[in-house]
TrEMBL record:
Residue stretches in coiled coil: none
Entry's transmembrane regions: none
Domain (Alpha/beta hydrolase fold-3): residue spans on this chain: 82-301
InterPro entries per record: AB_hydrolase_3 (IPR013094), AB_hydrolase_fold (IPR029058), Carboxylest/Gibb_receptor (IPR050466)
Domain of life: Eukaryota
The protein's name: Alpha/beta hydrolase fold-3 domain-containing protein
GO molecular function per UniProt: hydrolase activity
Family, as annotated: Belongs to the 'GDXG' lipolytic enzyme family.
Length: 331
């Protein structure tokens, strides 16, 4: 009897290993002090620091799930809804990771909004547009909840389906833009998109930008991670010039997009192409605000270690959350 040996065909240091039989191992193998950032946080129906959470199966056929955050709001009125798409280069991370829990409990609490975070399918097993389809399916489920075809104990009683916002980190920011475009071409009444918040979206070109060549690499994003994740995540045969990762060349002039709050970081590797996107949206007459976080890099606010030890990271995180809360409150 011959036992075949599994061979590594690709690897992203610390995060992911792909084998020749198709198996993908996402066990964290980097510095052990960072492992807790990717540990799952169990849902808790009771309020902890003013926020409760639960997980919901929203499509029994596909197995699509979401994590819902409910703030302990003092108001008796309806609460805005933030639909969150996690990052991870389309290849890693889950909606229940500590790094997201740590931030999105704060965002839910400070913005007084219910957060619905989608457990997106991951590449390379599920290449794009799978994650975008999951994001859009989440909005279809919200429409069913709004129309009493589905039920969620928190959203059904407290959610304001006329004030739904899309928010996403890194590659999740790419999904925000793609889902917003899709919604602009469909009627999801009574669900209405009131705003979109891409945070450090992975907008790139095949040719390296000046910031990619000159900005410092960080634990949250290296050039190797950027290249390998996108190669695994994009449809086979695609380059980084694909519209999902390079929406800069396409016009959105005819689309009824919601107001945007684009969050960028001064030391992000991809800030140059993010700014190209910002200028393109303005040129097409779209309503878009810009928030620049000074002296920090890509997804800095997800690194709790940096928040705890570096005063500027802590300050910029607090400022970003406050600006997100202001944007939600004002739309």
């Amino acid at each position: 009897m011959v036992i075949s040996q599994r061979n590594i065909i690709d690897q992203v240091s610390g995060w992911l290993t792909v084998y020749d039989d198709g198996f993908v191992d996402r066990t964290w193998t980097g510095p052990p002090q960072f492992k807790f950032l990717s540990d799952p946080v169990p849902p808790h129906h009771h309020f902890v620091d003013g926020v409760a959470t639960h997980d919901e199966l929203i499509n029994a056929d596909s197995g699509l799930r979401v994590r819902v955050y409910l703030p302990e709001a003092s108001t008796t009125g309806k609460l805005p809804i933030l639909v969150h798409f996690h990052g991870g280069g389309f290849c890693i991370s889950q909606a229940d990771w500590f790094m997201y829990y740590n931030i999105y409990t704060r965002i839910a609490r400070e913005s007084g909004a219910i957060v619905v975070s989608t457990y997106l399918r991951l590449a390379p097993e599920h290449r794009l547009p799978a994650a975008i389809d999951d994001g859009y399916s989440t909005l279809l489920w919200l429409r069913d909840v709004a129309n009493d075809k589905m039920y969620d104990s928190w959203l059904s009683s407290k959610g304001d389906f006329n004030r739904v916002f899309l928010i996403g980190d890194s590659s999740g920011g790419n999904i925000v833009h793609q889902v917003a475009k899709r919604v602009a071409m469909e009627n999801l009444y009574p669900v209405r998109l009131a705003g979109a918040i891409p945070i450090h979206p992975g907008f790139v070109r095949s040719v390296r930008s000046k910031s990619e060549l000159e900005k410092p690499q960080s634990p949250m994003l290296t050039l190797d991670m950027l290249d390998k994740f996108l190669k695994m995540g994009l449809p086979k045969g695609s380059t980084k010039d694909h519209p999902i990762t390079c929406p800069i060349e396409e016009t959105v002039n005819g689309l009824d997009l919601p107001p945007y709050l684009l969050c960028v970081a001064e030391d992000d590797l991809v800030i140059d192409t993010e700014m190209e996107f910002y200028e393109g949206m303005k040129k097409d007459g779209k309503e878009i605000e810009l928030l620049v976080s000074d002296g920090v890099g890509h997804s800095f606010y997800l690194n709790k270690i940096a928040i705890d030890v570096d005063p500027n990271t802590s300050h910029q995180t607090r400022k970003m959350i406050q600006e997100i809360a202001r944007f939600v409150t004002s739309h």
